[in-house]
Structure formats: C-alpha cells, structure tokens
Write a structure and sequence with these properties.
Number of domains: 2
Strand content: 15-25%
Structural class: alpha/beta
Helix content: 40-55%
CATH superfamily of the largest domain: Glycogen Phosphorylase B
Number of helices: 13
CATH class of the largest domain: Alpha Beta
CATH topology of the largest domain: Rossmann fold
Number of strands: 13
Radius of gyration: 21 Å
Largest sheet: 7 strands, parallel
Order of helices and strands: EHEEHHEEHHEHEEHEEHEHEHEHHH
C-alpha cells in the first residue's frame, strides 16, 4: 500500500497566477483520498483550502498559513519547510502538485512532482523581460531541481512530456522519468440555460495568452460579420493594452469561478487564444458547460480536444472567422457528443489511477 504527503499549503485562489494549477492541486487531493490503493494521505494545507477538502479517515490535514501569506513565507516553505515536515511524517512519497522542488537542499524523502509546463524556458527565449530577473532565476532553478531530484514526474499531455524531456536534454540533465497522467474534469449535472447573444473572451496579462491577438481578431470579426451582441472580456487585462470602444465590448475583469462558469454557460461561444500551453482548460470547460469553444490550433490544444471544438490558425484571420461561424452554428447535440468524448479522455479517477500506479511502480 501507498502513503503520501501532498503539499498545497502555498496555494490560494485569491493570489494564484494559474487557476488551472490551483484547480488541479485541490481536485487531485480530493480524488486521491478516494483511491483504494492509497492507505494514508497527509495534506499540507492552509485555512483557505481546508474547508474544501473531503472528510476521509485516511486524510490528515496540517495547516501552514505562512506558506501562502507572503513571499518570504512561500520561499521558506518551498526551499526548506515542506521537506522538513514531510520527513517528520515519514510517508512513502512527498508529492508536489505545482512541480517545483527545492534547489537549496536535497530531499531525504522520495519526491514526485506534477509539472504542468516548461513556461519558464519558453519565457526565457521569447519574453525574457516579462518577469524580473529574480523571478526568472527562482522558478527556472526550481524547475531544474525537479528534473534532477524528483523520482518521478507526472504531467498533463504528451506535448508537455516532450517539452520536459527537451528541457532536460538542453540542460544536459539525465532524462527524468515522465508519466502522462492527464487532467480531470467532473461530470456536471445538466443545467440548461437560455443562451444570450454574447461571446466570452478569456484575457490575461501573461504574454503567451496573446490577448492582444484575440482582441484584434474579435474586433475584425465583429465588424465583418455584423455581430450585434456583446463580447464580454473576463480576466486580468493590462491597463496599457488598447481596447476597442463601443457597445459591443464589455470589459468585466476578474470574476469568481462560479460567475465565470455561469457566463460561459450563457454565452454562444468562448474564445481562447494562446501560443503555448501545457494543457489549456477553458476550451474543455466550455464544452462541459454547453458552449462551443474557439481556440488556437496549437499542439497541446489539438491533443487535449481530440477533434472537439472549433480550432483556428493564429496566423490567419480568415481561419478565425470560419471558427467563429462554426461555433455559433454548433448544435446542442454536437456539444453533448463533444462533452461525452472529452469526459472519456479527461476524468479524475483515470488521472489518479495513473499517479498511484506510477508511484507504486517506483516504490523500490
């Protein structure tokens, strides 16, 4: 049997840079607690997460609020604290769902990590000035430590696996053991709502999300098609980014997850533009909520969607226009078929079984 220490103490929905990583971290903890091959699960948590964890005889929750309250506490926890507490519990493995190991000290316990992407290396080559030098150094060194010291690495897609192995080769590290565990989604109860004449755009200040391209393409499409509805823009938008004026644009900003799902459900289409991802959750979430997604045709999104949704080439406005028209014409029956297909590909029990099986196979 397997015992596991699982650290999410440094995560907080109010300050996270990635809701995808936060959602995986919390949902995976829930799913692990239900796996019959896991004997004991120790969760390092904080007061913002603990109420959402399930009651389980095999789960022991230990709160460390200082890990998420300020940067100094987060750094101390990442580099020293999490290892010290994991050693005290003496479980089979320490699991790090954000994927970053300490580069200051070596672990005295077996460490597994879920690496979502190699964004730090992507930014180093394409956007070297986006983050401060200190942030670039910190996260790059932490990811390198994961490649060198984790006994097994889990990830979300074959694309991410190939990127992790490429990074190891470029850094002249021995090839790590990388298992594609995937990402899970829950079956949502049927919630039929009346569609409104709205399109939902996901915005971000992160440069790889290409919010600038999305706004430009949507503005061109609205004028060309004569779309008479509203384009709602949710997320964090740079104050210096140019915004089209007029009644067709609604600049909402960041919204709570439940409100975002409701807006997704009522929209006729969602738009997700990116140049680089590890997985890319919103197009799948849109289908689950009964809305057609329009998304960039890049390798990880092709892999994740498996033919569902409406992909377009980032380099072609005409391709985007065609994807928008396809999305607006998508029937509820097609959306139901897409949803069944995606839930078969991406579900928590399957993800958890791959992780538990991978840890047990590396128990020696």
């Amino acid at each position: 049997m397997l015992s596991l220490t699982y650290s999410i103490a440094d995560q907080n929905v109010a300050t996270t840079k990635s809701m995808g990583i936060y959602n995986l971290s919390v949902n995976l903890a829930r799913s692990l607690s239900a796996n019959p091959r896991l004997e004991k699960l120790t969760v390092f948590s904080n007061h913002t997460i603990s109420p959402s964890l399930p009651a389980s005889e095999k789960m022991f929750v230990e709160e460390h609020d200082s890990a998420m309250e300020h940067k100094v506490g987060r750094i101390w926890w990442d580099q020293w604290g999490v290892y010290r507490r994991a050693e005290a519990w003496r479980n089979s493995w320490l699991f790090l769902p954000k994927g970053f190991c300490s580069f200051v000290r070596r672990p005295r316990v077996k460490v597994a990590a879920y690496v979502h992407d190699t964004m730090e290396y992507h930014y180093r080559g394409r956007y070297p000035r986006f983050q401060s030098r200190l942030e670039n150094f910190y996260f790059a060194r932490s990811l390198e430590a994961t490649l060198r010291r984790a006994g097994v690495i889990f990830t979300n897609t074959e694309f991410s696996r190939s990127e992790i192995l490429k990074m190891a080769r470029q850094s002249d590290f021995p090839a790590p053991e990388v298992i594609v565990a995937g990402y899970g989604f829950d079956v949502r109860p049927a919630c039929v709502v009346e569609k409104e004449n709205r399109v939902l755009l996901f915005a971000s200040t992160l440069p790889h999300k290409r919010t600038d391209m999305a706004i430009q393409l949507l503005n061109q499409w609205q004028k060309k098609s004569g779309f008479d509805g509203v384009i709602d823009c949710i997320g964090i938008l740079s104050p210096v980014m140019e915004r089209p004026a007029g009644r067709h644009w609604n600049w909402v900003g960041r919204v709570p997850p439940a409100e975002g799902r409701d807006m997704m459900r009522r929209a006729r289409a969602i738009v997700y533009v990116s140049e680089y991802e590890g997985f890319g959750m919103p197009p799948v979430e849109a289908v689950m909520e009964g809305t057609a997604p329009v998304f960039s045709d890049i390798p990880p999104l092709r892999e994740v969607m498996g033919g569902a949704g409406c992909a377009f080439a980032n380099s072609s406005a005409e391709s985007f226009f065609a994807a928008m028209e396809k999305a607006l014409a998508t029937t509820p029956r097609t959306l139901q078929l897409w949803s069944e297909h995606l839930l078969g590909k991406h579900n928590w029990p399957a993800v958890t079984e791959k992780i538990v099986g991978g840890l047990l196979s590396h128990a020696g």
